[in-house]
Design goal:
The protein has helices at about 5-15, 20-25, 35-60, 75-85, 105-120, 120-140, 140-155, 285-320, 340-370, 375-410, 425-430, 440-455, 460-470, 480-505, 510-535, 545-560, 565-575, 575-580, and strands spanning about 65, 70, 155-160, 180, 185-195, 205-210, 225-230, 230-235, 240-245, 245-250, 260-265, 275-280. It is an alpha+beta fold. The chain has three domains: about 5-155, Orthogonal Bundle (Butyryl-Coa Dehydrogenase, subunit A, domain 1), CATH 1.10.540.10; about 155-285, Butyryl-CoA Dehydrogenase, subunit A, domain 2 (Beta Barrel), CATH 2.40.110.20; about 440-580. Helix 8 (about 285-320) runs antiparallel to helix 9. It is globular, with a radius of gyration of 24 Å.
Length: about 575
Amino acid sequence: MTYAAPLAEMRFALNAVADLPEIAKLPGYEEATPDLVDAILDEAGKLAGEVLAPLNHPGDREGSVYENGVVRTPHGFREAYGQFVEGGWNALPFDPDYGGQGLPWTLASAVQEIWHAANLSFGICPLLTAGAVELLQAHGDDAQKETYLPKMISGEWAGTMNLTEPQAGSDVGALRTKAERNGDHYLISGQKIYITYGEHDFTENIVHMVLARLPDAPPGTKGISLFLVPKFLVNADRSLGPRNDLRCVSIEHKLGINASPTAVMAYGDSGGAIGYLVGEENEGMACMFTMMNNARLAVGIQGVAIAERAYQQARAYAFDRVQSRPIEGGNGPAAIIRHPDVRRMLATMKAKTEAARALTYWAAAALDRAKREPDAERRAAQQALIDLLIPVTKSWCTDVGCDVSSLGVQIHGGMGFIEETGAAQHFRDARILPIYEGTNGIQALDLFTRKLLRDKGAAMTQLLMEMRAGLPAMNGNSDLTALRAPLAEGLEALDRAAVWMLEEGGRDLARGAASATAFQSLFGVVLGGWLLAKAAQQNGESDPSTRDGKIKTARFYAENLLGEAAGLADAVTGGADSTLAFDDEDF
C-alpha cells in the first residue's frame, strides 16, 4: 500500500518522449534545467511518499464529513495541504507576474501524476485550482487577475468548476442558474451539483467559476455566461470581506474518491450571490472550455497515476504471495510472479501504464509548444495537435486507469476483493475518471465533430504522416524490427477508420456518433503503441538495461495489445448500422 514515485520512468518519458530538454529552450522556459527538473521530481516524490500516500487508505475509510453546512476533510488532509502550499507546488506552471514559477506544463504534468498516484482524492483540489487559474489568466480582466491570481497560484485560495445542475446533467445548455445585472456585479441564484471541493477546510477562500444565464440571453449554450463567485468577498486591500450568499447543501456519498468532498451548492438563497463576469456576456462556454481542456488533460494524468499506483501494489504482491508450483516444475510452491498468466497481467499493466504516461507527457509538450513556440505557424500546428489529442488523452488514459486497477484486483485474487489490502480502493477511485470532465462518450463526440470534421481531417492527416515517419527502421535490431509490422497494421486500421468517420460519418452524423467511441479507443490504442516504439528507439543517455526494458515493453504491447486495433477499425466501419438498428422497445 506504499507508493514510490517512479522517477526513473518519469524522467525517461519526459526526455525520450516529450523531449523536455527542447521544451526548456522555448522562450520563458529556460529555467527548466536538468538539475532543477531532477530536484523538483525528487522533492515531489518525497512529499508524496512520506505525507500524501500514507493518508490515502485511511482517508478513503474516514471520508469527508458534512455537518451544519461545514465540510471537514479526513484527518491529516488539511495539514498535508498546508505543506503542499508551503512548498510552492501549486505555482509550478503559472505566470511569474502573479507569483508563479513559469515552468513548463510538461514538467507540471509529471508532478501532477505524483500527487494523484499518491492520493487521488487529495490531488483533485489543486487540479481544479490549476484549471481556474488558467481560465482567469486567459479571460479575466486586470482587476480580477490582480485580486485573485496571486492567492490562487500560491494555493492559499482554491478554485472550483460549477457546470452541472440536477435537471441538466451533461446538457449544459439546459442550465437554469440565473444571473441578474446589479451595478458593477451580478447576482447569482440557482443550484449546482457534483462540485468537487465545492466546500472544504483546506483554504480560507474558495473561488467558484459558475455558469449562469442572463434574463435576456439566447437559449442553449449560446446564452451562457461565466461568473467568478467567491465564498468570501474580497476587500479593496485584498483582505477577506463578508461571506457571500452561497452555501454547501450536502456532499455526496460515492463509490470512490471518498476523501474528496463532492458538494451540492446553493447560490442566492438570501437575495443573490455576488458574482463578477469573466469574459463577455453569453460567451461563458468559450471561457469555460479553457478550464475544461486543462482539466481533461489533468484527468488523463489521473488515469496514468491510478494505473501506476495499482501496478506498484500488484507487482509487490506478486513477488510476495506464494502459491502453487510453477508450471515448469520445482520442489514446492513459488511466488505467483512465476506463473505465466500473472506475468501476462503484470506486463499488460506495465505496458498500458507506460503508454498512457507517454501520451499525457507528449500531449503536455504539445501544449507547451502551442504556448511558447516563437514561430506562429508552428504554434498553430501544435495547437491543432493538442486540440486533437485532448479527448483521446482524457478518454483512453482513464480507460487504462480502470483496466489496470481491475487487473490489480485480479492479481490479488480473493484478497483483492477485500478492502483491507487497498487494491479495491484503486479500482473504485478509478471508476469516476471516465465519467467526469465530460464522459468518455462525450469526448468521442468532441473528437468526431469538433476536431475531425471541423478541419476536415487536416490535423489527423498530419499526425498520421508523423506516425508513419516514426516507424522503427529495419536496422538489424530484431526486437525493434518486430515492432514495425504490428504498428504499420495499426496505423492502416486507424487511417481506414478516420476516412470512414470523415466520409460516412460526415454524411450521416448518427452513424458517425455510433462509431465515435470505437474510433476514439482505436486512436488511443495505436498512439500508445507508437509512443512506446518511439521510446524504445531512443538511445540518449539511458543505460543498456533501461533501453532493453523499453524494447521489451514496446514489443509486448505490439504483439499482445495492438492487435485490438484491427477489430476496433472493423467496429468503426461496420458497426454503426447494427447499433442503430435497435428500436426503443428492444432494450
